[in-house]
Amino acid sequence: MTKTGSEVLSYCTSCRMDLAHTIVAMVGDKIARVECRTCKKPHAYKAPKGIDTPVAKPKKSSSKTQSRSAKVSIEDQWHELMLTHKNSPLQKYGIRQTFSAGDRLKHVKFGDGVVTKTIHPDKIEVVFQNDLKVLIHARD
Known about the structure:
Shape: globular
Radius of gyration: 16 Å
Order of helices and strands: EEEEHEEEEE
Strand order of the largest sheet: 5-6-7-8-9
Largest sheet: 5 strands, mixed
Helix content: under 10%
Oligomer: single chain
Number of strands: 9
Strand content: 35-45%
């Protein structure tokens, strides 16, 4: 169950990336505002853009029934990615190793993760069970 103070994956309008956020305000069971854990700026909740699963948007109606929207937590996304890429070999993370989207890796500190995208030729975004991290790779 999502509640104020919980962590959620959201698109940061300032950083322009899907990053870990802290829920600041909710309206009913819907996330209204979040604060980016990277840049510390609060903004309206935006569904992560890097997730292929559709996020249900609330229907606008005059009835008093509240529509539920799918909220994707980092842990839920991690579980989904680990299942999707279960056939990929688990590679040990190293700064000199080269990774691409969909690769599974094992980090000494953060544990098992899945590369979601390449941000820069030497930076990758990795979803771990409890956090979303940007790591350096392919360094000589």
